[in-house]
Amino acid sequence: MRLFMAAYPPIEIREHFQAVVDRLAVARPRERSVRLAPPERWHLTVAFLGEVEDENAAVDALGELAEVPAPAVHITGGRTLGRGRFRHLVTGIETDDGGAGLKRLGEQARKALKRRRLPYDRRDWQPHVTIARPSDILSAEELAHDLRLLAEYRSPQWRLQEVHLMRSRLGPQPEYDVLAAVQLR
């Protein structure tokens, strides 16, 4: 099964952020889909495991995060990830402590996965929330507009208190199931 660890913004933060997303070019109706992520699926991927056979080992690794202090974070900024038709429009996650709290969370997750010999994405972790997968549908002007609006946005602060182990099933809109959750300290 395909697994990842994720933290979800509370509903009041999603509602606040929705106000800026509604103003983005990527949110405008169009003939071809840009695969706009619905607010209930907005999440911060703490660690992407990929295909895993031993769900119990992944649950155990998640449990180790209970000792990590819950960082206070903001949704802010915007950028694209990927190239060409695989481009994603994302917003950043920042902390008032220069990223130390998030870094600690990401490092602890990877150490726990490594101890259990579970796979995980070893690329540099760049905390973000995916807004849309616009492919090549947005014009350069529309993309610049969206990036400007996102650059000006900063959500209210919220505490990242819970991390979930998620199973994803791919499709036009991915489906996610919560397998386990842990409260951060």
Automatic annotation (TrEMBL):
The keyword Hydrolase applies. The active site is at H43 (proton donor), H128 (proton acceptor). Coiled coil: none annotated. Keywords: Hydrolase. Its EC number is 3.1.4.58. It comes from the Bacteria. SUPFAM superfamilies: LigT-like (SSF55144). Belongs to the 2H phosphoesterase superfamily. ThpR family. This is RNA 2',3'-cyclic phosphodiesterase. The lineage of its organism: Bacteria, Bacillati, Actinomycetota, Actinomycetes, Micromonosporales.
